[in-house]
TrEMBL record, chain A:
PANTHER family: ER MEMBRANE PROTEIN COMPLEX SUBUNIT 6 (PTHR20994:SF0). It comes from the Eukaryota. GO terms for cellular component: EMC complex. It comes from Phyllotreta striolata. This is ER membrane protein complex subunit 6.
Automatic annotation (TrEMBL), chain B:
Pfam families: MMgT. GO terms for cellular component: early endosome membrane; EMC complex; Golgi membrane; plasma membrane. It comes from Phyllotreta striolata. It is found in: Endoplasmic reticulum membrane; Golgi apparatus membrane; Early endosome membrane. Component of the ER membrane protein complex (EMC). InterPro entries: MMgT (IPR018937). It comes from the Eukaryota. This is Membrane magnesium transporter. GO terms for molecular function: inorganic cation transmembrane transporter activity. Keywords: Endoplasmic reticulum, Endosome, Golgi apparatus, Magnesium, Membrane, Transmembrane, Transmembrane helix, Transport.
Length: 109, 113
């Protein structure tokens, strides 16, 4: 019981959390843009594009956890799920922008 | 480890590869257009190259941003010694009685040397 109470109060360092999240945000924005470009190159249309986005983001999530360490990710992040889902719609719009742009550049013109 | 030259080159290679795949896809489209063929799917090699470039760029971006920091508040303090925390500059005393003491003066110190 005493051990349980002790574990509930963990002091986190805010600058460290902020640094980690900004690194993740930077990476995820780039991944959204680049996967959009790839989807445009591949000529995906409709739901396949959305599926590709889900695939790319999930793959990147696994890579991220792998980088932090499969056992030791708790040292760097509070929650794994928020790494996958935070701001996913914002990234989806970035993805759509790049997707349509590159699709137009490669396949239409 | 911070971003090294290797990671930068990996990222550059990825972007070049993606650009090359895009250019190949555009050429494939123009080939189809000239021969009045319909677009069904890309050739497999372009497909694989584009996907491979995506993964290479992901890897490069992930490694170029640098390491994560430990979020435990005590993580940074563990490497520091007690002397670092005890050191409080506001409590430094320079004007103490040692200067007035006849036993240890500047000249006597020089004589000792």
């Amino acid at each position: 019981m005493a051990n349980k109470i002790k574990n509930e109060f963990v002091a986190y360092s805010e600058p460290a959390i902020r640094t980690n999240l900004s690194i993740v945000e930077y990476c995820r924005t780039s991944v959204a843009a680049v996967s959009g470009c790839t989807a445009g190159v591949l000529g995906l249309t409709g739901l396949y594009g959305a599926l590709f986005f889900v695939l790319a983001v999930t793959t990147f999530w696994f890579m991220l956890i792998f980088k932090a360490g499969i056992d030791s990710w708790k040292k760097y992040f509070i929650s794994r799920k928020s790494l996958l889902l935070n701001g996913i719609f914002g990234h989806f719009f970035t993805y759509i922008l790049c997707w349509t742009f590159i699709y137009g550049m490669v396949h239409v013109y | 480890m911070p971003a090294t030259f290797v990671h930068r080159s990996i990222l550059t290679i990825g972007f070049l590869s993606l650009f090359h795949a895009a250019y190949s896809a555009a050429q494939h489209r123009s080939y189809l257009r000239l021969n009045d063929l319909d677009f069904t799917h890309l050739p497999l090699d372009i497909f694989i190259q584009a996907l491979g470039a995506l993964f290479i760029i992901m890897y490069g971006v992930l490694n170029i941003t640098g390491d994560f920091k430990e979020i435990k508040a005590s993580a940074e303090l563990e490497n520091k010694s007690w002397e670092t925390f005890r050191n409080i500059p506001s409590f430094y005393v320079f004007n103490h009685r040692g200067g007035k003491s006849p036993a240890v003066t500047k000249t006597s110190l020089e004589e000792i040397e």
